[in-house]
Amino acid sequence: MSKVLVVVSAADALVLADGSSHPTGFWAEEVVESVRVLRDAGVRVDIATPGGARPTVDAASLTDEFAAYLASIDDELAAPLRLADVDAADYDAVLLPGGHGPMADLAFDADLGRLLVAFDDAGKVVAALCHGPAGLLAAVREDGTFAFAGRRLTAFTDEEERQGGLAVPYSVEGRLRELGAVPETGPAWSSTVVVDGNLVTGQNPQSSVDTARRVLTSLS
Q1: Where do the domains of the chain lie, and which CATH numbers do they carry?
Q2: How far apart are CA 45 and CA 165, in angstroms?
Q3: How do residues 16-75 score in pLDDT, each as one tens digit?
Q4: How crowded is residue 125: how many other Cβ atoms within 10 Å of its Cβ?
Q5: What single string gives the DSSP state of each residue in 24-50?
Q6: End-to-end distance of the chain based on CA atoms, in angstroms?
Q7: What range(s) does the DJ-1/PfpI domain occupy (predicted)?
Q8: Cα 192 to chain center, whole Å?
């Protein structure tokens, strides 16, 4: 049985460009569909957060369906694994769902960075969705180089961010490009998945199911 580590942001707020604090967290659809698609295919899924903190769902993302599924895995969300305790050798893939939360914590998390480098060096699947690719920013090697420089990927686009109307503190797409990654974007709000070897990325919430399915394909 394949094992996938789903790394969820533990942030509950994001400091915006004007210095104000905006409540945030993980995007329900992205966690729900990622976990559901993988488990329905027989994959073992473990959930981890920075410090093992209980993650906060972004209230704007909740529907009755997603709330019900989150309730069904509440025991796991209440006591996730600590990123610092995780060994990449125990898993076949890692997946980072989004919501604006990863911009606040995963992007700067040294434990996540260590894991991502280990997964990538071993040729294991590294997947990220929507704002989840902000977590890739933490993957800096000991020599200071960005682990995903030169790699094709996608993330929540600047155009989608503009249409969403939130004055985020930085552009995920822009930061990845600055570090040498090669962002490829589809139309706003389209299901867009980019695969570059073992790296699988989805552009937005609409890409949640297709991203998880592509992870399954990469695991097979």
Answers
A1: 3-219 (3.40.50.880)
A2: 33
A3: 999 999 999 999 999 999 999 999 999 999 999 999 999 999 999 999 999 999 999 999
A4: 24
A5: --B-HHHHHHHHHHHHHTT-EEEEEEG
A6: 11
A7: 28-216
A8: 15
> Crossing angle of helices 208-219/28-40, nearest 10°?
30
CA angle 189, 190, 195 (to 5 degrees): 120
Distance CA(179)–CA(42), nearest Å, equals: 36
Instruction: Say how many residues make up the chain.
Output: 220
Q: Are 97 and 204 in contact (CB under 8 A)?
A: no
Q: Identify the pLDDT of residue 220.
A: 86
Contact 99, 138 (CB under 8 A): no
Q: What is the rounded distance in angstroms from the CA atom of residue 136 to the CA atom of residue 112? A: 8
Q: Are strands 199-202 and 93-96 parallel, antiparallel or unpaired?
A: unpaired
Assigned token pair, 128: 């990220």
Please state whether beta strands 21-23 and 13-15 pair in parallel, antiparallel, or not at all (unpaired): antiparallel
Q: What is the pLDDT of residues 141-176, one digit of tens each?
A: 999 999 999 999 999 999 999 999 999 999 999 999
Which tokens in the block code for residue 177?
Answer: 């490009």
DSSP 3-state of 136: helix
Both tokens of residue 131? 């704002």
